[in-house]
């Protein structure tokens, strides 16, 4: 390019054509040729953010901070990247600065409303209404308003608005899921019937039956989910997901012949199918076939948590000594004391209970009873949650210091020296009378957790014979039909964290009386 302006114009054209990689290169060239031009830098930062390179975007913008603080577009771009990096306080500050300069600008209005929702700010619904007033065609803002209304307890208004959105856009999967959550929280027995209605209205859209299968399967409605998956596999023969799920669900229902037929009808070179079929082959005792599928998958995706968890089950079923290497080394499963636990928990318990009182039974989670808080717990604004977060980080440092030596072939120990961050944080409150966590995985994490904030009086007493409410690690869910017990059964203790590799299935035993409240989170490798 002969000039910075020409490079910038070409970058704009590439962005409009959807060629973001090319646009980023062109905007970078424009910014290099004219380093004092903030408009070119803003364009470059926006392209970087489209490529999920948010730290680079902020670095580019920081070089123009003085001029940028007077430019609403600069402030909005900086806020967006801060939000994507989950620095919500910084995002709020830059969105507020952008809106002070241009109060009716739709993008920062919407972005600031999202931050308010994610941080649990009381005015989130009002902020979404302001974003809608600035751009009534912004469907995501309408859906955000539904979520904000639901979070603030205006469930009837939230439901009515969600029903209107689904009626107008029956193929909007995100809206279908939000309405399912609202209906589930209201106790509707057939909380996903509107998804079936949407599929009838949009019979050519495979995303709708896929969402229907996922919602039903997530709540143990295996027969219903199998019917949807089987029908969809005939309607959409080029969508392997439905055959794979039909095979999985048939396996859950112990129809091995039907399950095998579904798996054998799918292209054998699809990595997404290798894990699902491997789990089924464990059920039928075809261990060599399962091993070949898992070896192939882990070679392609060496950090696949779900694949490693299934390999653990295989190794234990076949008495392979590598099972001990994977989960049996000292220090990998620990109960760790929360620093200054008495003071920290005394402050945070009332806040957690207030959040639970406004929460409902969650869609597609492992709970069988009880409530789970919405959004990211440690992204909220309450100072007592920030103090809890800091204490947990200290406990994690203690856990890390007790791990075995680094092992590049191990799914956890290969990353013990990397940067860790908490991704996802929530609280669960279960009540006696049968509430429990079904066995499950957190496949996005490397370490999973449970901090015990409150327990019934008769739980957590050493020597309790029934182990009611205790956490089991390593027992697969009943739907897999595998004769394996837990590797560890941990006794809950108030003010302590159970910390363990995310490659371990985990669930809790039911209890009869009282209340059990925990805070949980996933630890991930920070690659941002």
From TrEMBL:
Keyword Repeat attributed: yes
SUPFAM superfamilies: TPR-like (SSF48452)
Superkingdom to which the source organism belongs: Bacteria
UniProt xrefs under InterPro entries: CHP02466, TPR-like_helical_dom_sf, TPR_rpt, Ycf3/AcsC/BcsC/TPR_MFPF
Pfam (any one): 2OG-FeII_Oxy_5
Keywords from the UniProt entry: Repeat, TPR repeat
Coiled-coil residues: none
Protein name: Tetratricopeptide repeat protein
Native source species: Aurantiacibacter aquimixticola
């Amino acid at each position: 390019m002969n000039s910075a302006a020409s490079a910038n114009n070409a970058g704009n054209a590439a962005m409009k054509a959807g060629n973001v990689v090319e646009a980023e290169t062109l905007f970078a060239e424009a910014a290099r040729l004219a380093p004092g031009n903030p408009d070119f830098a803003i364009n470059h930062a926006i392209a970087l953010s489209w490529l999920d390179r948010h730290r680079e975007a902020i670095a580019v913008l920081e070089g123009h901070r003085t001029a940028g603080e007077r430019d609403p577009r600069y402030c909005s771009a900086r806020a967006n990247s801060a939000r994507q990096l989950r620095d919500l306080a910084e995002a709020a500050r830059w969105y507020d600065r952008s809106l002070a300069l241009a109060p009716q600008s739709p993008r920062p209005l919407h972005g600031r409303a999202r931050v308010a929702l994610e941080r649990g700010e009381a005015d989130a619904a009002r902020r979404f209404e302001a974003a809608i007033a600035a751009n009534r065609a912004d469907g995501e803002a309408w859906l955000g308003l539904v979520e904000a209304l639901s979070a603030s307890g205006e469930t009837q208004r939230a439901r009515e608005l969600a029903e209107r959105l689904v009626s107008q856009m029956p193929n909007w999967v995100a809206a279908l899921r939000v309405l399912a959550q609202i209906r589930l929280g209201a106790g509707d027995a057939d909380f996903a019937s509107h998804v079936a209605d949407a599929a009838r209205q949009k019979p050519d859209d495979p995303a709708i039956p896929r969402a229907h299968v996922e919602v039903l399967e997530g709540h143990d409605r295996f027969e219903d989910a199998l019917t949807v998956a089987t029908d969809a596999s005939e309607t959409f023969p080029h969508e392997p997901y439905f055959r794979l799920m039909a095979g999985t669900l048939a396996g859950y229902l112990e129809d091995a012949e039907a399950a095998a037929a579904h798996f054998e009808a799918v292209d054998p070179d699809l990595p997404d199918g290798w894990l699902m079929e491997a789990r089924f082959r464990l059920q039928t005792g075809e261990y060599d076939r399962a091993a070949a599928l898992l070896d192939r998958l882990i070679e392609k995706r060496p950090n696949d948590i779900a694949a490693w968890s299934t390999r653990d089950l295989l190794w234990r079923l076949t008495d392979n000594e590598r099972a001990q290497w994977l989960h049996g080394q000292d220090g990998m499963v620990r109960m760790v004391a929360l620093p200054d636990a008495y003071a920290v928990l005394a402050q945070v318990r009332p806040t957690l209970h207030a959040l639970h009182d406004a929460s409902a039974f969650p869609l597609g989670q492992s709970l069988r009873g009880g409530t789970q808080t919405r959004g990211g717990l440690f992204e909220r604004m309450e100072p007592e949650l920030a103090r809890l977060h800091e204490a947990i980080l200290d406990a994690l440092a203690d856990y890390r210091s007790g791990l075995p030596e680094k092992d590049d072939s191990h799914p956890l120990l290969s990353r013990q020296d990397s940067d860790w961050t908490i991704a996802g944080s929530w609280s669960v409150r279960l009540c006696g009378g049968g509430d429990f966590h079904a066995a499950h995985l957190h496949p996005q994490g490397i370490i999973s957790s449970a901090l015990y904030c409150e327990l019934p009086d008769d739980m957590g007493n050493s020597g309790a014979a029934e182990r009611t409410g205790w956490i089991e690690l390593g027992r697969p869910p009943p739907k897999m039909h595998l004769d394996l017990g837990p590797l560890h059964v941990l006794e809950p203790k108030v003010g302590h964290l159970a910390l363990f590799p995310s490659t371990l299935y985990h669930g809790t035993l039911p209890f009869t009386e009282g209340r059990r409240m925990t805070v949980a989170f996933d630890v991930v490798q920070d690659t941002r």
